[in-house]
């Protein structure tokens, strides 16, 4: 069996102060480590799946900065018997499940013991990004060594390219380096987001289609999934997906009203909403579902030894 989920945490900005992408991801990571009773030095790999960067700077990777913030194997010593990997994996809303698969493979191989996947959604230049509708959220999931009774059992990724124009994100110039706007903002570039009103609906339809094929490949029925956890992003996806697959109410958790509108942190918010609950404890097969631009669909089947009683 694959790696197990040891802790899940999300954070939002404190009441005062401007949040940063690195800060939010690091805060979520520290909370996850504390919840699992682990020290930062217990972590062997840190993967960041956030795609919105501080002031739109795309290099270097943010994961090493998160590693430094949480104090994981710092300072580096050439004589150390073990080190740590840290890198970014950018794939929008599906990136988090991609990273879970990477860590699961590393932990399952026995080469590494624990992995931390982090993300954050923070507007790079507040008030400048066009089409920005997301709330600042940071998230982290800590994975550790599993056993034969619990862990990730299968992953599935599928792309429906004909719907690729429903969500677009690109960097554009907003003026030359000497324009008044560029001088006032201290930048001459901005992220522009465009989301079609049909985006969440098509994400749900594509996810339902991918799930049907996935279940057939695994010789599973929909009824054998005790808990289905659709991502909280895009907004409305979880509700649309529930209608698309026609699952019973006991299989799908309710989306908390008034929750944050996240992007890459959407899958973490969904997982945190059920993790530690009685429904999660009693479930044998848990399915994580994410969908994003592409349209891409990510599925992760997590097998558990349920608590009886």
Topology, please?
Layout: E1 4-11, H1 21-36, E2 45-48, H2 63-70, E3 85-88, H3 95-108, E4 115-121, E5 137-144, E6 151-159, E7 167-173, H4 180-185, E8 189-195, H5 199-218, E9 227-230, H6 237-245, H7 266-274, H8 278-282, E10 285-292, E11 296-303
Parallel strand pairs: 2-3, 2-4, 9-10
Antiparallel strand pairs: 1-5, 4-5, 6-11, 7-8, 10-11
Helix pairs in contact: 1-2, 5-6
Describe the model.
It is a single chain. This protein is 28% helix and 24% strand. It has two domains: 4-148, Thiolase/Chalcone synthase (Peroxisomal Thiolase, Chain A, domain 1, 3-Layer(aba) Sandwich); 155-161 and 197-303, Thiolase/Chalcone synthase (Peroxisomal Thiolase, Chain A, domain 1, 3-Layer(aba) Sandwich). It has a five-stranded mixed β-sheet with strand order 1-5-4-2-3, with helices on both faces. Strands 6-11-10-9 form a four-stranded mixed β-sheet, with helices on both faces. Strands 7-8 form a two-stranded antiparallel sheet. It has helices at 21-36, 63-70, 95-108, 180-185, 199-218, 237-245, 266-274, 278-282, and strands spanning 4-11, 45-48, 85-88, 115-121, 137-144, 151-159, 167-173, 189-195, 227-230, 285-292, 296-303.
């Amino acid at each position: 069996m694959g790696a197990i989920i040891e802790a899940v945490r999300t954070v939002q900005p404190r009441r005062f102060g401007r949040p940063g992408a690195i800060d939010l991801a690091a805060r979520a990571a520290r909370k996850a480590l504390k919840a699992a009773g682990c020290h930062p030095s217990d972590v062997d790999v840190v993967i960041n799946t956030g795609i919105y960067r501080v002031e739109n700077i795309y290099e270097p990777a943010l994961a090493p900065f998160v590693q430094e913030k949480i104090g994981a194997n710092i300072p580096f010593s050439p004589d150390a018997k073990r080190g740590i990997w840290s890198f970014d994996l950018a794939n929008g809303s599906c990136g988090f499940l991609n990273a879970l698969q990477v860590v699961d493979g590393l932990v399952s191989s026995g080469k590494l013991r624990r992995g931390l996947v982090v993300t954050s959604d923070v507007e790079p230049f507040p008030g400048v990004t066009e089409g920005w509708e997301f709330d600042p959220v940071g998230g982290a999931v800590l994975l550790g060594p599993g056993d034969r009774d619990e862990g990730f059992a299968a992953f599935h990724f599928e792309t429906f390219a004909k719907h690729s124009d429903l969500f677009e994100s690109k960097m554009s110039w907003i003026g030359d380096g000497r324009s008044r706007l560029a001088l006032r903002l201290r930048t001459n570039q901005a992220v522009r987001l465009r989301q079609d009103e049909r985006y969440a609906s098509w994400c749900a339809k594509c996810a339902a289609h991918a799930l049907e094929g996935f279940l057939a490949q695994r010789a599973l029925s929909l009824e054998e999934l005790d808990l289905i956890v659709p991502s909280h992003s895009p907004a409305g996806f979880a509700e649309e997906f529930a209608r698309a697959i026609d699952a019973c109410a006991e299989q799908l958790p309710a989306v908390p009203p008034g929750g944050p509108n996240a992007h890459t942190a959407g899958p973490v918010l969904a997982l945190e909403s059920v993790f530690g609950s009685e429904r999660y404890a009693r479930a044998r097969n848990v399915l994580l579902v994410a969908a994003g631009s592409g349209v891409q669909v990510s599925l992760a089947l997590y097998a558990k030894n349920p608590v009886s009683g």
